[in-house]
Automatic annotation (TrEMBL):
The lineage of its organism: Bacteria, Pseudomonadati, Pseudomonadota, Gammaproteobacteria, Pseudomonadales. Keywords: Signal. Residues 1-23 form the signal peptide. It comes from the Bacteria. The keyword Signal applies. GO terms for molecular function: electron transfer activity; heme binding. This is Cytochrome C.
């Protein structure tokens, strides 16, 4: 059960065809012939390849298609209707992708806001010390700020080549981001709008977390590296690690935990020496995107390729896993632990499903994300123990209020 509030604040201005900052490489495979094909090829390749359409789960109606692409690009109504009809005709809903939603008696309330700049691929929201919600517009190289009380939003331009992947506010309210395309760690001062960049050896800084000692630790997925930045001195240290490090968290003792999307491992890094101890997760097909920790120091993780969530006891090395409700193709992605209850999403489903798992009872409950398109790739637990989510393809930022 949930209450859904959808705010369509800030619908952007104009067609994005002239906005080169949003260009995203991708394959352009041939589309089926039919009225509207040429319009799709014109309008839908500004930000991505046509293969995104062909790999999609489709939609049941022209209205559903219209709702989705209207969050990506603004078109005259006549062209929008033609495109929507074409897409609904040739790319209907793949009903096998519907999530297996589990009923329960826990109530939540989901509020979503559409971000101002269309097609930006908004993602990775985070809460600043003043309660504002920040996000990255990866394809538009921007950082956005939302006042959740009023719904007011503003967007800060970052270096065009940055394409920020993740942002992390510091205690002073500065916004730190990973420059995924220009190999930098950046800091935005919201008071002045000024940006400071710290070059990295790695080509693609990915996810980041502040340590209690003040250092910023980060992963670089493509480069296979882990990094540490001292914001006070600018000192940077980077090391090679196992393939495709992804999510990163700090435990209560100060050790830095890393999820690996290129191998079946979890890593535990000493924050001083940066030496890493690895824990193998059963089945070599396992790939892990995100992780979090509970109050007892257990490491919870999403086994994305196997459709499971898991728990590692670092002391014993014991690993326990549970099947996600929608099965082996559910592709769990993001994860957070709130009061020792596990929250994650099933990104392989349409709509994206938000799942709650109570380890004490081993019971699941799940909800469809209302905007339902775009994949929750990262979540953030607020000071009030609510959950920040997003839908990148449909350019929404969301707040899940948890009783």
């Amino acid at each position: 059960m949930f209450k859904h509030v959808l705010s369509l604040a800030g619908v952007g201005a104009g067609l994005l065809a002239a906005t080169s900052a949003l260009a995203q490489p991708g394959g352009n495979n041939a589309l089926p012939d039919g009225p509207g094909k040429e319009l799709v090829e014109i309008a839908c390749t500004t930000c991505h390849g046509l293969n995104y359409i062909q790999r999609s789960a489709g939609y049941a109606s022209a209205a559903d298609w219209h709702r989705v692409f209207s969050t990506m690009v603004r078109l005259p109504e006549a062209q929008a209707e033609t495109i929507a009809t074409y897409l609904a005709t040739h790319f209907p809903e793949d009903t096998s992708r519907r999530p297996n939603l589990i009923a329960g008696d826990f109530d939540i309330e989901i509020t979503e806001w559409q971000v101002p700049t269309l097609g930006q691929r908004s993602r990775d929201p985070a809460e600043a010390p003043d309660g504002s919600i920040w996000w990255t517009g990866m394809w538009a190289s921007l950082a956005g700020r939302l006042d959740p009380e009023t719904g007011m939003m503003e967007e800060f331009k970052l270096p065009p080549s940055a394409r920020p992947h993740t942002i992390v506010p510091d205690d002073d309210g500065n916004i730190w981001y990973t420059g995924n395309s220009n190999g930098t760690i950046g800091m935005l001062d919201p008071e002045t709008g000024m940006i400071t960049e710290y070059p990295t050896e790695a080509r693609d800084p990915h996810s980041a977390v502040f340590h209690p000692n003040g250092n910023l630790f980060f992963t670089s997925q493509g480069a296979g590296m882990l990094g540490r930045l001292n914001p006070e001195t600018g000192e940077m240290r980077e090391i090679q690690t196992e393939p495709r490090p992804y999510g990163i968290k700090v435990d209560q003792g100060g050790d830095v935990w890393v999820a690996y999307n290129g191998t079946n491992k979890l890593g535990r890094m000493d924050p001083e020496s940066m030496e890493v101890r690895y824990y193998d997760v059963p089945d070599e097909r396992t790939r892990i995107r995100r992780l979090d920790l509970d109050s007892e120091g257990n490491v919870w993780f999403v086994n994305s390729t196997m459709g499971k969530i898991g728990r590692l006891d670092p002391d014993s090395g014991e690993i326990t896993q549970w099947d996600s409700p929608s099965g082996p193709d559910s592709h769990p992605y993001s994860m957070a632990v709130i009061d020792d209850v596990i929250w994650y999403n099933e990104s392989g489903m349409r709509p994206d499903a938000l799942v709650r798992f109570d380890p004490a009872s081993e019971r699941f409950q799940s909800w469809a994300v209302p905007s339902g398109v775009g994949i929750i790739r990262h979540v953030w637990v607020t000071e009030d123990k609510n959950l920040l989510i997003h839908q990148s393809s449909s350019n929404h930022i969301g707040l899940v209020r948890i009783p």
